[in-house]
Each structure stands twice: as structure tokens, then as C-alpha cells.
Design goal:
Blueprint: H1 13-29, E1 35-42, E2 48-55, E3 59-63, E4 78-81, E5 84-89, E6 102-105, H2 144-155, H3 172-182
Antiparallel strand pairs: 1-2, 2-5, 3-4, 5-6
Length: 193
């Protein structure tokens, strides 16, 4: 990344915010083995408006029989993957309240081939919105680096919300699996080495 070539005082408010977020991401994730962040798209001023985050974290990417979720007596042990890819898109209204950043895991490659995406109650697994991340944040202002770290906590199952009450899970089917099978069988307490 090359955020150092920009002078904040010469930028508009939005572009200054984009630069500050970029610099925080560089500081936090430069040289990390488990998380890397790259710029995927820039605005006319050359500042990032879309990032790719590569997570190299061992995590659940599905279950053995997703079509049998909820059936009594059917054990559905987790499947695992070690790499996940997520995009962060900053809409034109960012950083306004109605322009929140969009965190979304890739569910298919450029050629349409399915790729593993996380199985977590706060990440949509099924349907048209598959891959969408709900950060359950209390504040309207949260820096992007916090969100990237929060998603890493999701992947490690250090943080999750599976109970059907506010702030509500993003994927109710995955949440039900966590409560009925993941927790009782201790499948969500996997080793992170």
C-alpha cells in the first residue's frame, strides 16, 4: 500500500476519512500471517473504496448435511476450511450513517465456482445475501480495522450471537445449529493452532 503519498490537509472530509481508515488498516495488518488486506478499487482521488481481506484462520465453513438442518436425531458435524476471502465496500455516502461499510464474504470465485465461506450465526450462509456480515456494533462510528478484527473473532468463534433476541443473528438456521448441536457437542470450541 502507499497511503504515505497523500497529505491529509489537502483532502476533502470524506477523502481524509478514507485515507485515515487506509492508514489504520496498514498499521494494524501489515506483516500479519493470519490476516492481510489489499486495495481492490479506488475513487477518482486514488483512495480506497473497496478492500479484499484474506483470512488464514481455521474455521467452520459448513456442516455435513445442510439440507437436513433441524431434523431430529440427525448429527450434523462441522466442516472446516483454512482460508476465507471477504470484501469491504465503502458506498458513496460513507462515512454517513446511511453509508455504512458493507462487509461480505466471497461465496464464489470469478468463474462462479463455489468457495468456502464461514458458517457463523452472524454471517449469512444461505440465500441471496450469502456472505453478508452483521457486526452487531453499538456505535455508528467504528473504524474498518475494528471490523476486520471483529470478523477474525467470529471465525475463531470467540464472539457470536446465536440467541433469537436483539441484536439477532444474521442467519437463523446457523444460529439454531449452534444452539442445538454446536454448543452441546462442543464443535464450536475447536483448536486454533
Amino acid at each position: 500500500m502507499e497511503s504515505g503519498k497523500f497529505i491529509p490537509e489537502q483532502l476533502s472530509g470524506r477523502n481524509r476519512r478514507l485515507l485515515n481508515e487506509w492508514r489504520r488498516l496498514e498499521e494494524r495488518f501489515s506483516g500479519r500471517r493470519d490476516i492481510s488486506v489489499s486495495v481492490e478499487e479506488r475513487n477518482a482521488a486514488g483512495l480506497p473504496v473497496r478492500y479484499r481481506v484474506d483470512y488464514r484462520i481455521h474455521s467452520i465453513c459448513g456442516v455435513g448435511q445442510p439440507e437436513r438442518l433441524g431434523e431430529k436425531g440427525v448429527a450434523n458435524p462441522p466442516l472446516f476450511a483454512d482460508e476465507f476471502k471477504m470484501d469491504i465496500t465503502l458506498p458513496a455516502a460513507y462515512p454517513c450513517v446511511d453509508g455504512a461499510p458493507v462487509f461480505r464474504f466471497l461465496t464464489s470465485g470469478e468463474d462462479g465456482t463455489p468457495i468456502p465461506h464461514p458458517w457463523h450465526p452472524n454471517i449469512r450462509y444461505f440465500g441471496e445475501m450469502a456472505g453478508r456480515v452483521c457486526l452487531n456494533q453499538d456505535d455508528t462510528y467504528t473504524e474498518l480495522a475494528w471490523g476486520v478484527d471483529r470478523v477474525a473473532q467470529y471465525l475463531r468463534y470467540d464472539v457470536y450471537h446465536a440467541v433469537c433476541e436483539p441484536p439477532y443473528p444474521e442467519d437463523m438456521q446457523v444460529a439454531a445449529w449452534v444452539i442445538r448441536q454446536g454448543e452441546p457437542n462442543e464443535w464450536i470450541y475447536f483448536d486454533q493452532d
